[in-house]
DNA sequence: GTCTATATTGCGATAGAC
DNA sequence: GTCTATCGCAATATAGAC
């Protein structure tokens, strides 16, 4: 069975929007990439922005699913929760390699889809991490005096930045060295080791 | 004395390009924002791309200066060199709040200016950090077995990501909590603590 | 649901007066 | 160095045939 035009449009539009932004791609280009007619975009999505919105929602699908799983889970100890987030980051970027580009594009120049999609999920992730770190400090796992809000950003940064910098990093690092899993593991180890309470103080 | 049109164009174009990208801003918009005529962009910069290139070069100015200073400096011990990078990051983002947006925009969708500007400076920073970490491991300061290339990206990530995420972070964190210096200090402390060799192993 | 043809608007760049 | 006027082109969107 052949894919319908609607689905095909979303699929081929994803890397185009991710690379060039909403303003950087024309409807003609989107239609041609999908092997569809120019009018198809308006017909199926009501215009270019409608297609962009659909692409963005597809990108956040795995995050929505993961957040539901987390909500339905029994509460884990702090370190376990941070570990869960770490594997979630790796998994999501594997499933949706373009996601981070959309997030950053939306962060620096929000489109109409920002409120509807981005602002819906990011705060929930932030809250999950914030709570985990708070409990960890209270339980004595992590350093007292840690600024929790900043520490959340640090974890997100040390894990996610790699996935933005990858195109450039590929040119700077020996090729054999590349493995998302290995990166994420070491980065998380550095972070966790960094916030852990020192035994001898 | 009034600023000349050339300078004024670069100044007003900076936030526009940073927010909306090269394709997202029109020459008419750029000229109007600078209080100049539409033809001025072509006259002074040979077109929209020429202006964009000039903006990008201005953004990288402090980095170029910092790299020269580093090159002319006596070699410092590894931890000092990483500390130097950290204060450099904070300083540059303070001087050029839009820089990171341009870097990321160029990373995901390189324009003609990418080769000329971005590829010129980033590898030199990478090399400086790579060498510092390598020496630190050799000297026994940092954990043996550390993947140096990945560790460079982790440091860049934990420090820089914050400056991208700021617009969103402002909404998630209590307002009083915001200070770039405080963020950078804690993040660097976490990182350094994370890569340090454990005393008791 | 898909096509062609077209209406309309805005784009970047420049010629030529001042 | 700055302006107006305009050329040529590509953009989005849609009306109407199939």
Description:
The structure is a homodimer of 201-residue chains. In chain A, helix 1 (5-24) packs across helix 4, helix 2 (27-33) packs across helix 3 (38-45) and helix 5 packs antiparallel against helix 9 (180-195). Chain A has a domain at 56-195: Orthogonal Bundle (Tetracycline Repressor, domain 2). In chain A, 77% of the residues lie in helices and 0% in strands. The first copy, chain A, is elongated and about 65 Å long. The first copy, chain A, contains nine helices and no strands. Chain A starts with a helix and ends in a 6-residue tail after the last helix. Chain A has 201 residues and is an all-alpha fold. The interface between A and B is large, with 53 and 53 residues.
Rg of chain A, nearest Å: 20 Å
- What global shape of chain A is seen? elongated
**Assigned CATH superfamily of one domain in chain A:** Tetracycline Repressor, domain 2
Structural class of chain A: mainly alpha
What does the largest sheet of chain A look like? none
What's the count of strands of chain A? 0
Note the main attributes of this structure.
201 residues; DNA-binding; homodimer; Tetracycline Repressor, domain 2
Provide a quick synopsis of the model.
Two copies of one chain form a homodimer. Chain A is mainly alpha-helical.
Helices and strands, with pairings:
The structure is a homodimer of 201-residue chains.
Chain A: H1 5-24, H2 27-33, H3 38-45, H4 48-71, H5 78-95, H6 99-108, H7 113-138, H8 148-172, H9 180-195
Chain A binds a DNA duplex (18 and 18 nucleotides) through residues 4-5, 26-28, 36-44, 47-48.
């Amino acid at each position: 069975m052949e894919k319908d035009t609607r689905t095909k449009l979303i699929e081929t539009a994803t890397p185009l929007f991710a690379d060039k932004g909403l303003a950087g791609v024309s409807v003609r280009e989107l239609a041609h990439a999908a092997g569809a007619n120019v009018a198809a975009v308006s017909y199926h999505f009501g215009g270019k922005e409608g297609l962009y919105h659909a692409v963005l929602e597809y990108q956040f699908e795995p995050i929505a699913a993961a957040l539901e799983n987390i909500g339905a889970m029994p509460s884990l100890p702090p370190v376990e929760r941070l570990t869960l987030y770490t594997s979630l980051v790796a998994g999501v970027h594997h499933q949706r390699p373009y996601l981070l580009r959309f997030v950053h594009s939306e962060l620096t120049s929000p489109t109409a889809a920002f409120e509807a999609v981005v602002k819906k999920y990011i705060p929930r992730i932030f809250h999950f991490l914030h709570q985990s770190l708070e409990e960890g400090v209270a339980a004595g796992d992590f350093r007292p005096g840690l600024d929790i809000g900043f520490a959340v950003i640090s974890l997100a940064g040390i894990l996610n930045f790699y996935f933005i910098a990858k195109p450039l990093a590929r040119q700077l690092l020996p090729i054999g060295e590349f493995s998302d899993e290995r990166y994420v593991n070491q980065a998380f180890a550095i972070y966790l080791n960094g916030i852990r309470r020192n035994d001898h103080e």
